[in-house]
Amino acid sequence: MSITDEMRAKLQAAFDPRELDVVDDSESHRGHAGHREGGETHFNVRIRSHAFEGQSRVQRHRAVHKALGDIVPRIHALALDLDT
Fold first, then answer.
1. pLDDT of 16-35, one tens digit each?
2. What local confidence, expressed as pLDDT, does residue 39 receive?
3. What percent of the chain lies above the pLDDT cut of 70?
4. Cα dist. 59→1, 28, 55, 64 in Å?
5. Please, what's the b/e burial string for 41-78 (b: 16 or more CB within 10 A of its CB; e: otherwise)?
6. DSSP 8-state secondary structure symbol assigned to residue 51
7. Which residues contact 57 (CB under 8 A, 6 or more apart)?
8. pTM (two decimals)
9. In angstroms, what CA-CA distances link 41 with 19, 31, 35, 48, 54?
10. Which of 19, 26, 46, 51 has the fewest CB atoms within 10 Å, counting from its CB?
11. CB 56 within 8 A of CB 84
């Protein structure tokens, strides 16, 4: 299973989002730190979920990192756009 698919599955299970976009943006970082052939190093994630209600921006980010677990150390960059 690709890292993209793993991320999507873990985020879906953790937050039951009404919107979930996981975009592998690695190719646009070719030549930059952390890039490797085959991609799956740089990601943009957009989640809209009621699970984030009442949480600060920091709490939301921590929750996503916890949900992704062992995936986070395997990637170089993760941009998050999180809202209710």
1. 999 999 999 987 767 766 66
2. 76
3. 92
4. 28, 29, 6, 9
5. bbbebebebebbeeeeeeebeebbeebbeebeeebeeb
6. G
7. 82
8. 0.89
9. 22, 12, 6, 23, 31
10. 19
11. no
